[in-house]
Amino acid sequence: MSEPMAAVQEFILGRNPKLDHLAGDFDLIDSRAINSLAFVEFIFLLEELTGDAIDPEDIDLDDFRTLDAIEARFFKQKAA
Predict the structure, then answer these.
(1) Does the N terminus or the C terminus of the chain have fewer Cβ atoms within 10 A?
(2) What CA–CA distance (Å, rounded) separates 21 from 52?
(3) Half-sphere exposure of 7 (CA within 13 A, CB side)
(4) 39 CB contacts (<8 Å, ≥6 apart)?
C-alpha cells in the first residue's frame, strides 16, 4: 500500500473504532465509514496528499466509495 493510501486508511480507521481493517472493495459510503460530517475533512486530506484541488462540481461519490476507487481516481493517475 502506498504512503498516501496508508494515510487515507488511517483517516478512515481513526474515525471508525469498530473497524480494524478495510478491504479495498469495502463500501465506505453505504457503511458510513465516511459520513457527511467527515467528508469535507476527507476532501481536504485528499487535496493535501495529491497536491491538487478537488472541484466540488466534479465530485462523484463513486470515486470515494471504496479504497480501490479512491486509489484509482486520485493516486494512480499521478503515477501514469
Answers:
(1) C
(2) 28
(3) 13
(4) 64
